[in-house]
Amino acid sequence: MLKDLIGQLAAWYAQALDQGGYWVVAGMMALESTVFPLPSEIVIPPAAYLASTTGRLSVTGVVVAGAVGSWVGASIMYFAARAVGRPLLMRYGRYALLPPAKIEAAERFARRYGVLGVFVARFLPVIRHLVGIPAGLVRLDFLRYSVMTLAGSALWCAVLAFVGVSAGRDTELMNGSLHRLMLWVFAGLAVLCVLYYAFVHRATRDSGR
Fold first, then answer.
1. What is the distance between the alpha carbons of residues 86 and 110, in angstroms, rounded to a whole number?
2. Is 6 inside a domain boundary?
3. Tell me: the pLDDT tens digits for 137-179?
4. What whole-number distance in Å separates Cα of residue 45 and Cα of residue 35?
5. Burial annotation 128-165 (CB, 10 A radius, 16+ → b, else e)
6. Overall domain count for the chain
7. Do the beta carbons of residue 62 and residue 162 sit within 8 Å?
8. Contact at 8 Å (CB) between 7 and 46?
């Protein structure tokens, strides 16, 4: 059943990319950079693989569309936080999937890493859609925020595109090998866990003392 569901989703995504092209990638990545729970890990790799095999899109175009989409979503978060302000966010943010604990964690992360944190955040699950909040609250220069967001997003999308193309060329994986799938999943989770511990866990723990 799970395999059938994945197949249906893959077919839907392929059709959506065929019809909407780069706009689909950019739109989904814009959502991913807000509070919408749509991981970039399931957006960019399949798009890059399809681009490398069908020729209707280019892998470079997918990376650019993903980076621009991420910047759009991150800009929405920045200006929303800047307009609303901390008191209202702390009081009503939970209704937009932003409970006080998440906001405080993002603030601690931002205090520790500053502008560099905007760049680093693009590689980190959860924190990537939160870093715009403290940036907007402290009115970080939008140009610097944009440069760091675009740079980090482009690099992250390039990594995901490479993974997508490489995974697509793994014949055992494409033939449905569960063992191969688990290897890819565990490798990806290991990298994300290391990044999360190195930057988010330590920052929020140490800054919270």
1. 14
2. no
3. 888 889 999 999 999 999 999 989 988 888 766 555 555 544 4
4. 21
5. bbbbbbbbbbeebeeeebeebbbebbbebbbebbebbb
6. 1
7. no
8. no
**105 in any annotated domain:** yes
Place of tokens 């955040």: 121
Residue 11 lies in a domain: no
**How buried is residue 17: exposed, middle or buried, by Cβ count under 10 Å (0-12/13-18/19+)?**
buried
Cα–Cα dist 70/121, whole Å: 12
**Nearest to 148, CA basis, from 163, 135, 164:** 135
CA-to-CA separations, 197 to 81, 136, 200, in angstroms, rounded: 26, 25, 6
Higher pLDDT, 184 or 143: 143
What's the whole-model pTM score? 0.77
Tokens found for residue 58: 């280019």
Question: Is 14 inside any structural domain?
Answer: no
